């Protein structure tokens, strides 16, 4: 490609090639995964059983903890206003062994009918990384396709390697910016207002509330405020919101990579 196009843009080039070659199905699979030998046959069987299914998702485990679930179907959490993973953190005891429709399929392992791309288009490149699969599933469902969870298709995933960790500044940047981008493209007016309000409250908790935290010791209060505004995660979240407001999408700015490096060093054990 000549440059880093992100998850969305990079996969789009491969999807275009597969469609031009006459593929009936396309499997998007992260390179930090291990899969069960029967994964393709499990997806094919599910597609034959569900002709209205357009996107099929696997049962996904933590790579480091082989029986610990990360994803067993996805749902919209009305309380938190986030898309969530069913079964996350639970040990697999067969409680999610039923093939069924789901709200969304996670991007590290998506089995998709070629007809879906032909009808709704490719992944939205603006997301670059994170939430593009949720946007794609939202568009597919609006077009009449079902998203289907396939428990027989199993994947073990080294989670958030690309981000440097689930709590890294890079993850927070893309999560904040792309959550707003998803809402702007898919949510109705009232839901947009709720999500925008939720983002505002997160910013208040990260930056404004510490300023008004009462303390008898002025130096301690000043140090606390200083640490709040210099915190790499707080700054990355703010920059994500800022870039959405400015219409800056695609890859993250270099500042985010710098903040992630600072954050990584602070998490490293001292020698």
Outline:
This protein has 271 residues and is α+β, with helices and mostly antiparallel strands. It is built from 9 helices and 9 strands. It is 47% helix and 18% strand.
Annotation keywords:
271 residues, alpha+beta, 7-stranded mixed beta sheet, two-stranded antiparallel sheet, 18% strand, globular
Give your account of this protein's structure.
The chain is α+β, with helices and mostly antiparallel strands and about 270 residues long. It has helices at about 5-20, 40-50, 115-120, 130-140, 170-185, 190-210, 220-230, 230-245, 255-265; strands at about 25-30, 35, 55-60, 70, 75, 80-85, 100, 110-115, 145-155. β5 and β6 (about 80-85) form a beta hairpin. α5 (about 170-185) runs antiparallel to α6. The longest helix has 23 residues, at about 190-210. The radius of gyration is 20 Å and the shape is globular. The model has no long low-confidence stretch (mean pLDDT about 90).
What is the overall number of helices?
A: 9
Which range does the strand content fall in?
Answer: 15-25%
What is the overall pLDDT average?
Answer: 92
| Oligomeric state, counting identical vs distinct chains | single chain
Number of strands: 9
List the helices and strands and how they pair.
Elements: H1 6-20, E1 25-29, E2 33-35, H2 39-49, E3 53-62, E4 69-71, E5 74-77, E6 82-85, E7 100-101, E8 109-113, H3 114-120, H4 132-142, E9 146-157, H5 169-186, H6 189-211, H7 218-230, H8 232-246, H9 254-267
Parallel strand pairs: 3-9
Antiparallel strand pairs: 1-8, 2-9, 3-4, 3-8, 5-6, 7-9
């Amino acid at each position: 490609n000549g440059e880093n196009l992100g998850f969305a843009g990079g996969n789009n080039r491969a999807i275009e090639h597969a469609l031009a070659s006459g593929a009936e199905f396309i499997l998007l699979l992260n390179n930090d995964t291990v899969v069960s030998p029967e994964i393709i046959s499990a997806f094919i069987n599910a597609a034959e059983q569900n002709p209205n299914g357009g996107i099929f998702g696997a049962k996904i485990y933590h790579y480091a903890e082989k029986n610990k679930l990360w994803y067993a179907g996805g749902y919209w959490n009305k309380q938190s206003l986030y898309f969530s993973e069913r079964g996350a953190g639970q040990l697999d005891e067969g409680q999610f062994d039923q093939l069924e429709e789901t709200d969304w399929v996670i991007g590290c392992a998506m089995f998709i009918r070629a007809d879906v791309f032909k009808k709704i288009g490719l992944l939205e490149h603006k997301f670059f990384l994170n939430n593009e699969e949720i946007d794609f599933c939202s568009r597919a469902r609006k077009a009449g396709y079902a998203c289907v969870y396939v428990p027989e298709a199993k994947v073990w995933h080294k989670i958030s390697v690309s981000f440097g960790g689930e709590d890294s500044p890079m993850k927070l940047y893309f999560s904040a910016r792309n959550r707003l981008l998803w809402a702007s493209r898919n949510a109705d007016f009232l839901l947009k207002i709720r999500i925008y309000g939720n983002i505002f409250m997160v910013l208040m908790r990260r930056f404004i509330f510490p300023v008004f935290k009462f303390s008898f010791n002025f130096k301690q209060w000043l140090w606390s405020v200083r640490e709040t505004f210099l915190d790499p995660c707080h700054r990355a979240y703010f920059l994500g919101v800022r870039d959405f407001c400015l219409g800056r999408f695609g890859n993250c700015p270099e500042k985010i990579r710098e903040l992630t490096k600072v954050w990584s060093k602070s998490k490293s054990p001292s020698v």
